[in-house]
Structures are given as structure tokens and as C-alpha cells.
Amino acid sequence: MVKINGTLVDAAGKTLTEYLVSTSYDPKRIAVERNGEIIPKAQYDSTVLREEDTVEVVSFVGGG
Q: What pTM value is reported for the model?
């Protein structure tokens, strides 16, 4: 299980891209932190989520 935004999710073994495709997140409008480190968008395809990882997905919201 991987803790994503405070919730345990069965995502271990998936790449970050695979997880994000299964959600409603817009990859162009988010930042992802895994175990305290920001993951560059270029590494989403190669970043494999592991048991006990802690992930935070932050969405950017425009305003005016």
C-alpha cells in the first residue's frame, strides 16, 4: 500500500504515470512529491511506486 494524500492506496508496483492516468488529476496542473522529494514530470514514466511510499499530489488552481 502507498499513502497518497493521506489515504492508503493499492498502487505499489505502478509507475507514477499509471497511477495518475487512473485518477482525475490533470498532469499539466499538478506537482508530485514522493517521500519528501519533488518528482520531475519527465520522471513520471520511470518512477515506480513502492510499498510504504508517501506521496503528495498537489493541484494548481488558477485565479484572478
A: 0.87
Question: Where do the structural domains in the chain lie, given as residue ranges?
Answer: 2-59
Low-confidence ranges of the chain (pLDDT < 50): none
Q: What is the DSSP letter of 40?
A: P
Would you identify the CATH topology of the domain 2-59?
Ubiquitin-like (UB roll) (3.10.20)
In angstroms, rounded to a whole number, what is the distance separating the alpha carbons of residues 6 and 29? Answer: 20
> Rounded to the nearest 10 degrees, how much is the dihedral formed by the CA atoms of 40, 45, 51, 55?
30
**C-alpha–C-alpha distance, residues 12 and 1, integer Å:** 6
Note the pLDDT tens digit of each residue in 25-36. Answer: 888 899 999 999
Per the CB < 8 A criterion, the answer to whether 39 and 33 are in contact is yes
